[in-house]
Write a structure and sequence with these properties.
The protein has 238 residues and is of the alpha/beta class. The protein is 48% helix and 14% strand.
């Protein structure tokens, strides 16, 4: 049931597939992140209004620092509360928190808002942070905090630093931590210090994994050239 070809964003994904696919029909094509390209280039008409909405929300908040807290499904409330407590000790005037729920948590906004307030966090947003596309949110925040999420990998491609706050997340985001794009901070005092450090550090150089036309053309030519055994041209064209 696995595909013959895997469209990969970069070399790390290609290498992961190569580890298990040697001497099989499976192979990968590095063609970049086409979805990210659309957002960075503004090449589709829907991008502009969504980016404008995110930017307007940032301006309304009138805070110096904007931080995305991207939650993940399956963590105990205490694992999330320690993030909220660490964030709550920072200046309410200077910091605004974009709390983004995992898709499995949608519908539980009231619960997570109560959890944040009980931990002393104020000046936060959940609805827009969750319902706006991830790339719209990443375009207006200055740092990402997550117990463990692929958002950390996405953030690096937008030139954003991250703080990873759980042991599981440290393992999941090992590559970003090794590269220096993310730091591990699993205790409250460490999380608070890492947020401050991340916001005052020099911006990252965004990873150059945006798909150019040549990369897309190369990938499509290879993908469309595939034909499964026994399928004729007339079948493939339907």
């Amino acid at each position: 049931m696995l595909p013959d070809r895997f469209w990969c964003w970069g070399d790390s994904e290609r290498e992961a597939i190569a580890d298990w696919s040697a001497d099989t029909r499976h192979a990968s094509i590095v063609a970049g992140n086409a979805w990210q390209s659309i957002w960075k280039n503004g090449s589709e008409p829907f991008v502009g209004p969504l980016l404008a909405k995110a930017r307007a929300r940032r301006r309304e908040c009138n805070a110096k620092h904007h931080v995305a807290i991207t939650l993940s499904w399956g963590y105990a409330d205490e694992e999330l509360s320690k993030i909220f407590r660490a964030a709550g000790r920072l200046s309410r005037r200077d910091h605004f928190w974009w709390i983004r729920l995992h898709p499995a948590q949608i519908g539980q906004e009231v619960h997570y808002a109560a959890l944040a307030r009980a931990a002393g966090l104020e000046n936060f947003e959940i609805e827009d942070a969750t319902m706006l596309p991830l790339y719209a949110v990443l375009s207006v925040v200055d740092l990402v905090v997550a117990p463990g999420s692929t958002t950390v990998m996405e953030a690096e491609e937008w030139g954003l630093r991250s703080v990873v706050t759980s042991e599981y997340g440290v393992d999941l985001c090992k590559a970003a931590i090794t590269s220096g794009a993310a730091v591990a901070a699993t205790e409250e005092v460490e999380i608070e210090a890492a947020i401050v450090s991340g916001l005052t550090s020099a911006p990252l150089q965004a990873l150059a994994r945006v798909s150019g036309a040549s990369g897309l053309d190369f990938a499509l030519e290879n993908l469309l050239a595939l034909r499964s055994p026994g399928i004729g041209a007339s079948s493939a064209s339907r």
